[in-house]
Structures are given as structure tokens and as C-alpha cells.
Amino acid sequence: MLRFDYRNLLANNYIPTAIENKRLDGFAGKCQEADQDIRRERQADILGFYTLPEYDTKHIKSYVSQLDPEFDTMVVLGIGGSALGNKALYNALKTELGLKRKLFVYDNVDPVYLQEILDSIDLQHCVFNVITKSGTTAETMAGYMILLDLIKKKFPQDYRKRVVITTDREKGFLRQVINNEGYSSFIVPDNVGGRFSVLTDVGLLSSAFVGMDIDKLLWGAGQMRQRCENQAILENPAYLNGLLHFLYMREGKNVSVMMPYSNSLYDFADWYRQLWAESLGKRYDRKGREVFVGQTPVKALGTTDQHSQVQLYAEGPRDKVFTFLTVEKFQHDFVIPNLHPERPEVSYLGGKKLSELLNAERFATEIALTRAGRPNCNLIFPEISEETLGEAIMMYEIQTVFTGKLLNIDPLDQPGVEAGKVATYALMGKAGFDKERNEIEEYKKL
Known about the structure:
Layout: E1 3-5, H1 21-26, H2 28-43, H3 58-66, E2 73-77, H4 84-93, E3 102-106, H5 111-120, E4 126-131, H6 138-154, E5 163-167, H7 173-181, E6 184-187, H8 201-210, H9 214-227, H10 237-250, E7 255-260, H11 266-280, E8 282-284, E9 290-293, E10 296-299, H12 310-315, E11 320-329, H13 344-347, H14 354-371, E12 376-383, H15 386-407, H16 415-427, H17 434-444
Parallel strand pairs: 2-3, 2-4, 4-5, 5-6, 7-10, 7-11, 11-12
Antiparallel strand pairs: 1-12, 8-9
Helix pairs in contact: 2-15, 4-8, 4-11, 9-15, 10-15, 11-15, 16-17
């Protein structure tokens, strides 16, 4: 079970200016209102991610079991919520579980990046998973058209078995393509937004393909959901962390640094960045008032970034809240040989495990930041597994929605992203965007 150590988010001898315990009591009423709002939306089936622990995965496991055994690689074509969760899960577990099948995620339109993926795969043994709810996402559809053309030319007789599409259940361009071509297909649910969708077909299909136990992922999510039903704020890790981050935002700490001490969890921090930024960064509150709220998520990697960022974190602006991700037990480890027992400069390392050094460095960074008066917390993974990843995903999804309620904004929309999409359509000559195209031409003249 994940453990949440929040003591350094509260005032203590080293951080007297941190949030005091009694301030939590002062927001009990606001937290209760947020909880009631969440429960109403769950009843109305708006927050669909809450129901995912009971999700029936038979269709996913059936598809994977019936795939041609020649396929040992999947390439996901997606961006944002259609990509980051897939990467986070795969990169967390590929070495820990010794996964044999490979996953690549094409989530940009950089042509060199696409070539790098093509150089790394064998098309003969690859299946392509196109993920976009609308079927109109420019980045994903560009990759789809390039790669489908390539596959059709190389495998004209059986290209259909090499493509699977994850999209809206009934509507959209890709659903028409599925109906016409007969591709295997999966669903992006209506009541689960993209950045909350990793525990749907969006993330579960690729996870099952590479060999993860997706039922354990959902079980872990269910365990965390159960913990987060507790209305006692100190017993509810998602609500507690959300409230504390909300209070720190009110004090001008507008940067949230997530620092995993595990390369395997680095992409989890990437997934968190989208969830936190896109959900909470809003110009207007729910009454239409301009508020310009949000907290900028930043990812760092321990121990690497102790040598590039911690100087800023310890002595720079007091505008940050820190979250460490700690792993207690790694499936792979090394003992450092004592090659120079006569030299005190290095002999102290002899006989110690790499994991021991890694976690000592994490604790040392915690001590340094705490003594510098910087609020920090620690999410502790007993090990990296499907269960603990499911727990972490559900915790942060609940925390994000709860924090959005405290901020009185809609954590489920993303109008700023839509504005960029419209500008892209206009620049690329999509029909129906003449007005926007003319406005852009005027902008170029400035």
C-alpha cells in the first residue's frame, strides 16, 4: 500500500512558516462542500474515472490473446492523455516485470522522432494503436496517415490486422473508418476525459499487450478509491494533499515539483504534469469571473537533478512545493564492490547497495530542503507494481478534481488547449476556419 508522508507540508521546527494544523480545521466546511459536489457528479456519471476499478477487461484480454503471435511490438499514436499514461505505465514496469513485448509511443509530429521509431521497430512484427476520441487530432491523424500508407504498401493483403483504433463509441471520422475497413476497435468513454483515461481502453490495451496484469492495476485503483472515501481529511491522502497544495497556492507557491527517485517513475511525473496543469490552469472560475489560477508542475529526477536543480530549490524563490516519489524495494539491485578499502574517499560505499545510496540521497535532499524552509512531502511505493501504480493514478485523479473544487474552477475542461487546436487548423488550411486564418494573417503583420 502506498504511504503518504506529509509532515513537512505542516509547520515544524525547520519550517515554521509552513501550513499549521489548525488551518486545516478552518477549511473543513469548504472541503465538505467539495466532497459533496464530487459525490453529486459521481451520481450523475460525470466523473467516470471513479467507476473504473470495476471495469470489465475481458474484451481487452480476448483481443490480446487472439493477436497473431508474430506481433511483439505496439506503436501507440496519440498525444496528451492518449499517450502519457501509456508511457508512464510501460516505463515504470518494463524492467521491474521483465516485460518481453515492446511499446513505442509516437506523441509528437517531429519527423526525426518518427524516423527514430521506424528505425527501432520491425514492421513485420508491429501493431499500431491509433488513439483519439474525436478522430480529428491533427498530430495523431498525421501519424496515422503516414504510417497507414506505409503499412498498406508493405502488407497490402493483411494490413488490417496490423491496425487497432481506440476512439469514440459511435461517432467521429475514425469510427467511420472502422466501419468501412473492419479494424479492431476500442472505446474512449464519454464520461472520462483524456487526461483521466489511463485506466480505460486508452491505457489498458497497450498495458495488457506488453504483459501487465491490468486487473491488478484496477484493483490498486480500487484500494485507493476506498481510502479516499474517508471524509476525515487526515485519513484521505488525495483530499489532504489537494487541500495542502490549495493552501500553498494561496500563499504564492505556484510551482509543484515532482521528483521521483526512480528512473522508472520519471514518466509518471510527466503524466502528472498534464493532469495537474490542464485541469487546474484556468482563467475563469465556475461563476465566470477572471481568476487566473493554477500551479505549474515541474518534474525533476533524483539523483540526477540534485546536480542541476536542487541549488535553485534550496536557495531560490520560495514559490515551490515538492513531492518526492520513493521506492523502498527494487526488483533489480547491485552491491557496490569495495575496490579501494584503503581509501576513505570511496571505501564508505563498499558493500552498500545502489538502492541504499539512492534512498539515502533522497532523504538527504529532503533534509536539505526542510532545513531551507521548503515544504515537501513524500509518496512512498513499497515497490513498483501494477497495484501501486493503480493506487497512485487514482490518488492523483481524485486529488486533482478535489483541488479544482476548492479553487472553484472546472477541472474537466481545457479551453486554452482548444484555442491552440483552432489556430493549428487555420494554419494548416482546414476548411471552415477562414475567419481564424484571416486573423492570423493580420497577426503576422504586427
